[in-house]
Write a structure and sequence with these properties.
Largest sheet: 3 strands, antiparallel
Strand order of the largest sheet: 1-3-2
Structural class: mainly alpha
Number of domains: 2
Radius of gyration: 21 Å
Mean pLDDT: 82
Helix content: 40-55%
Number of strands: 3
Shape: elongated
Length: 107
């Protein structure tokens, strides 16, 4: 973001009487780092267990949610169910990555 744009946003935030300085600083930080957050790829640290929702899995495959449901139904992709729950909350990121690279997913 250009310096002139940042200065103008600061002026607008400063002029708003409903914002505290901390809130203004937080908003400015979000605006300035928006592109950086979107462009940096997220990496999964080995051993970290991340759960992806159906929509995220579908986006990674470039397919529909119905496609992901089909993978789960035929046992290709394992659903994750939390203790005490009956419905699945998503899929393990490691399983999705293995499936995308053509490896077998341990069920």
């Amino acid at each position: 973001m250009m310096t002139a744009t940042v200065d103008r946003v600061k002026a607008v935030l400063k002029a708003d009487p409903g914002l505290t300085p901390a809130q203004s600083a937080r908003i400015l930080a979000i605006i300035c780092n928006y592109r950086k957050d979107r462009e940096t790829p997220r990496t999964v640290v080995s051993g970290e267990k991340r759960i992806l929702v159906r929509a995220e899995v579908a986006r990674r495959f470039g397919r529909s949610i119905r496609f992901v449901d089909g993978l789960a139904k035929d046992g290709t992709l394992r659903r994750v169910t939390l203790p005490g729950r009956t419905r699945a909350c998503g899929f393990l990121a490691d399983d999705v990555e293995r499936l995308m690279t053509g490896e077998e997913v341990a069920i």
